[in-house]
Amino acid sequence: MKPMKKVEVVIDSIYLSRVLEVLEKTGVSGYTVIRDALGKGERGIMAGDELTDVFKNSYVFTVCSEEIAQKIAESLRPLLKKVGGVCLISDVLWLTH
Fold first, then answer.
1. Lower CB count within 10 Å: N or C terminus of the chain?
2. In 1-97, which residue ranges form alpha helices assigned H by DSSP?
3. Of the listed ranges 32-36, 50-54, 79-83, 89-93, the one predicted with least confidence
């Protein structure tokens, strides 16, 4: 198993494309997106039952090296500061096959 970093982002769906641009620019080789992520946060309940993406969240995760995770964090910080959202970075083990 290889030590890696897992980067998880929850953000308003209308900003999803900007998060994906950051991932692409920082050299991430792959990611997963789950649209209509439901939950409760500082701004209340995100029910996901709106007709537009304005009040919906998306969840994005990727696994990458520590260097790329740092680049993602620094690149996302201004967006998250402006529009809100969550970015979590944790240690994981990549099962190579």
1. C
2. 16-25, 66-83
3. 50-54
